[in-house]
């Protein structure tokens, strides 16, 4: 498949063909996203913190850790547009620091666009990054990097005031140059309203079926672990069960001595050579 560009996404939106985005955190998951021509965008989400690195919150992820993983994802990425989250703190200081950090992500990881959580307060940064050629995907609604201020991971935009604020944020960010926006955990009516009131493609997660596209975290979609499942998650595979069976099978075979098989899974010395050796 041809490389997916910002223009491709705009065309999909116009044709009302849902855009598919999936996260990846390392080379093999990136290859899986790339080997399916129906995946449009690969996202190195900062969910990396929890699902791969065992941190409790995305706020613990460092820029260096993101760059390390995004680089591996880039090595496995072909046609999907490659987007990565700027980690918490890497775009909250001065404008210059934020620009330098975004430049590092592009230059060291070879990602194509950055994703930033926030509303009007980050519009100037979105404008600046866009102006120097770093495309920005906005992220509105539930902002996991602010889960403490938000008193947890809760649905956003449920009352008139917060719904209006979210629509305003999406419009301001689009005006500032964002090429697309993730809309996380909002009522489906609001997901549709935002989508109909901006021209950039919206990518929903827990935002209902009427956004321009959908995104899920790899581990949620593949069932690589079977812990808490948010309402908006659908498990499309159950890799955790397969993995447990694999570990059990291996351990059993080692313990009962059936692995390795002396014929099929072992090397053999030439007989004459072995006789001389002895
Ligand atoms: O970090 C992440 O994986 C994300 C997506 C769920 C949108 O931001
Ligand atoms: Na994220």
UniProtKB/TrEMBL annotation:
GO terms for biological process: pantothenate biosynthetic process. This is 3-methyl-2-oxobutanoate hydroxymethyltransferase. One of its GO terms (molecular function) is magnesium ion binding. Pathway: Cofactor biosynthesis; (R)-pantothenate biosynthesis; (R)-pantoate from 3-methyl-2-oxobutanoate: step 1/2. It catalyses: (6R)-5,10-methylene-5,6,7,8-tetrahydrofolate + 3-methyl-2-oxobutanoate + H2O = 2-dehydropantoate + (6S)-5,6,7,8-tetrahydrofolate. Pfam families: Pantoate_transf. The keyword ATP-binding does not apply. One of its GO terms (cellular component) is mitochondrion. Catalyzes the reversible reaction in which hydroxymethyl group from 5,10-methylenetetrahydrofolate is transferred onto alpha-ketoisovalerate to form ketopantoate. Keywords: Pantothenate biosynthesis, Transferase. It comes from the Eukaryota. Belongs to the PanB family. The lineage of its organism: Eukaryota, Fungi, Dikarya, Basidiomycota, Agaricomycotina. InterPro entries: Pantoate_hydroxy_MeTrfase, Pyrv/PenolPyrv_kinase-like_dom, Pyrv_kinase-like_dom_sf. SUPFAM superfamilies: Phosphoenolpyruvate/pyruvate domain. Its EC number is 2.1.2.11.
């Amino acid at each position: 498949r041809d490389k997916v560009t910002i223009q491709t996404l705009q065309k999909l939106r116009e044709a009302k063909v849902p855009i598919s985005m999936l996260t990846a955190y390392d080379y093999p998951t990136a290859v899986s996203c790339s080997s399916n021509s129906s995946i449009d965008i690969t996202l190195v989400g900062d969910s990396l913190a929890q699902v791969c690195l065992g941190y409790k919150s995305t706020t613990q992820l460092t820029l260096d850790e993101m760059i390390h993983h995004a680089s591996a994802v880039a090595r496995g990425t072909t046609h999907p547009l490659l987007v990565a989250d700027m980690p918490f703190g890497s775009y909250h200081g001065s404008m210059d620091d934020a620009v330098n950090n975004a430049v590092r992500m592009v230059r060291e990881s070879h990602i194509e666009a950055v994703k930033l959580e926030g509303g009007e307060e980050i519009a100037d940064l979105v404008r600046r990054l866009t102006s120097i050629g770093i495309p920005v995907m906005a992220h509105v609604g539930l902002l996991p990097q602010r889960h403490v201020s938000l008193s947890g991971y809760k649905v956003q935009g449920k009352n008139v005031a917060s719904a209006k604020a979210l629509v305003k944020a999406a419009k301001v960010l689009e005006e500032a140059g964002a090429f697309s926006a993730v809309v996380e955990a909002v009522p489906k009516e609001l997901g549709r309203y935002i989508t109909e009131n901006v021209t950039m493609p919206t990518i929903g997660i827990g935002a209902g079926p009427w956004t321009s596209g959908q995104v899920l975290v790899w581990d949620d979609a593949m069932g690589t672990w079977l812990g808490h499942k948010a309402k908006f998650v659908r498990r499309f595979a159950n890799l955790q069960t397969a993995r447990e069976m694999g570990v059990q099978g291996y351990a059993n075979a080692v313990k009962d001595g059936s692995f390795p098989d002396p014929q099929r899974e072992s090397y053999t010395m030439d007989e004459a050579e072995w006789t001389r050796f002895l």
